[in-house]
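User: Some background: our group keeps a shared notebook of sequences we're curious about, and every so often someone picks one and asks for a predicted structure to add to the entry. Today it's my turn. The entry only has the sequence so far, pasted here. Could you supply the structure so I can complete it?
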Amino acid sequence: MEKVGIRLNKSPPQISITLTKFGGVKLNSTKALTHINEKVVKNILSEYKIHNADVLVHDDSTVDDLIDVVEGNLAIIKEIENISSVYTATIRLILFQWRRLI
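Assistant: Of course. Here's the predicted structure to add to the notebook entry:
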């Protein structure tokens, strides 16, 4: 699901990109960045033909987060777990047998 742009149980990346007419790419962040730096951001944006922009990062985002924001086709879905009653009964039986052995 990650390859097609669907992220399960994640929050949206806190990155804003404002296009400018001149000045190159400027990177500002409110937290320390460990996954990306200004050179990486410039290289990624140049691949998408963005040469002048102000990039503001509010969290420690990754390269994938930045690409998701640039492409704009990110879908974030909350995962819903469905446990069948058969599996629940099996787990209860295993736990019951395990407790009897102790």
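Suggested note for the entry: The longest strand covers residues 15-19. Residues 2-101 form one domain.
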